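User: Before I run my own analysis I want an independent prediction to cross-check against. Here's the chain; please return only the C-alpha cells and, at the end, one sentence I can use as a sanity check.
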Amino acid sequence: MSRSVQTRRHPPRQRSRCRRRRSVATFENARALGQQAGHAVQELGLQQHLQVAVADGAHWIKKKAATHFPHSEQILDWPTCGKRCAKPPTPWKC
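Assistant: C-alpha cells:
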C-alpha cells in the first residue's frame, strides 16, 4: 500500500511584506552591528515603518536598539521567556 501525498488546500502564504531584504553581520563590536542595521533600514526606506527588536533581554541589546531604532518595540524571544517565566504565555491561535 502506498501513501498518497497530501496537497495544500491553499497556496503558501507570503513570508514577508517587504520584498527587498537585508542581512547584516560583523565580527566587530556591537556599535558596528547597530550602525550596519541602521544603514540597512535607511537603504530599504523603512524608517517610517514599525521596527521590532527581538532579543534575549540583555541590557546592551536594549541599549543598542534604543540608540539605532529609538521608536522600536522590544520583544523578549520565546526561549528566554520560557526560562525567565514560570509558565510562558501561549501564542494566540487565529
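Sanity check: Residues 34 and 64 are 6 Å apart (CA to CA).
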